[in-house]
Amino acid sequence: MKTYLELHEIAMMERAATNLRDKLLVRLLFHLGCRISEALALRVEDIDLDQGTVTIRHLKARVELHCSKCKARLGKSHKFCPVCGHGVDKAEAEEKEHRRLRTLPLDSETLGTLQEYIGRGGPDLKNGKKLIFGINRHRAWQIIRDCAERAELPKLINPETGKVHNVSPHKLRDAFAVHAVKLDDTGDGLRLLQEHLGHQSFNTTAKYRKVAGEEHRQWYQRLWSERKNGDAASQA
What span, in angstroms and rounded, lies between the C-alpha atoms of 47 and 113? Predict the structure, then answer.
């Protein structure tokens, strides 16, 4: 069973889309390698058709705990404040938003599809923002699943858990990463991929090298092919 999608399969999903919006969603998720939350947050003003770039706005909310007496930062396991020693009976919770921006290049064909979609009035105005996709997360997942089913693509297996899943938006992000690693698995290539995907940890990016290269399998096969070559040479 397969673990990731290949280029021709994503092209099949695009052809299976029933409208331009759904085709664009499939194409952007793969060609940008972005998260579904990032794709759904895209606004018309984030697209620079002249420069050929898309600005991704990644918003993450994080709850921080503080000592009610001295306001020092606390961890979830703290019984006493490490600064003032005050017993932590009730910590003050504060939700902070962390915003990160990254500007990504985009290929000319996808930019052309975007331009056509915008020209046709596809974007949706919500809460004063002109969103590229005026749909929620659940609907986006349905669109990707339905396109894969119409293209008659098989389900995919998670190599870490062994569980079988429908094709999802994140599988298009995975496919982008695997495709990139297949073309360039050098240190510089992986560093650029990490930056493009917006990974905080390099280890998250490096996992795609193992998936793309099938290093363990190739190493194992070389062990026995070399032995066969050695046996043949000794018999000659």
Answer: 12
Averaged pLDDT of the chain: 83
Q: Which fold has domain 7-60+93-205?
A: hpI Integrase; Chain A (1.10.443)
In whole angstroms, give the CA distance from residue 174 to residue 220.
25
| Residue-wise pLDDT tens digits, 34-52 | 999 999 999 999 999 999 9
The model carries a pTM of 0.73
Sign of the alpha-carbon dihedral angle for 203, 208, 211, 214: negative
- Given this model, what pLDDT does residue 62 score? 53
Residue whose entry in the numeric block shows the structure tokens 């064909």: 109
